[in-house]
Specification:
Helix content: 40-55%
Radius of gyration: 35 Å
Oligomer: single chain
CATH superfamily of the largest domain: Ribosomal protein S6/Translation elongation factor EF1B
Distance between the termini: 96 Å
Number of strands: 4
CATH architecture of the largest domain: 2-Layer Sandwich
CATH class of the largest domain: Alpha Beta
Strand content: 15-25%
CATH topology of the largest domain: Alpha-Beta Plaits
Shape: rod-shaped
Strand order of the largest sheet: 1-2-4-3
């Protein structure tokens, strides 16, 4: 009887040990599956990064920046109030820059011009922007800005 009891205890211990290992094995399999999913997501992100790096970052202007801004000003009927000066090459390396001044603007005209410049394709950057009341009429604005584009 003692031998039978010892054998039963031995088999029950082996049973619970195997059952415990089976539970741990299932937990490990679950963890491995989660890690494999994380690796798949990481690989997808790496592929997306490589695809984006292969694309050109910016389009370049096909015409001089001053001419491009002048054509935008024509669309907004601002050419008679527009003054432009090229920025020296030393001031903006790798970029072409223009200082743009527009006098006697309404608020709507100013917002439309700035929006057009910022949403232009190829991308332009308004590096500095200064607004002041116009000298002749305090309801109008004087706009001075520095616009940059990739050469």
């Amino acid at each position: 009887m003692v031998v039978t009891l010892a054998v039963i205890l031995l088999f029950s211990g082996v049973y619970f040990a195997v059952k415990g290992l089976t539970g741990k094995e299932a937990d490990l399999r679950r963890r491995i599956a989660l890690q494999e999913e994380v690796l798949k997501q990481a690989q997808a992100l790496i592929d997306e990064k490589n695809r984006l790096n292969a694309q050109p970052v910016q389009k370049k202007l096909t015409q001089p920046l001053m001419g491009y801004i002048e054509s935008l000003a024509e669309k907004h009927a601002l050419t008679s109030r527009l003054q432009m000066n090229m920025l020296p090459e030393k001031a903006v390396s790798g970029l072409q820059g223009v200082e743009v001044k527009v006098n006697d603007l309404t608020l709507d005209e100013m917002v439309n011009l700035v929006h057009t410049l910022e949403s232009a394709d190829p991308m332009l950057v308004i590096d500095q922007l200064e607004l002041a009341a116009a000298f002749r009429d305090k309801d109008l604005l004087r706009l001075t800005m520095r616009v940059l584009a990739i050469k």
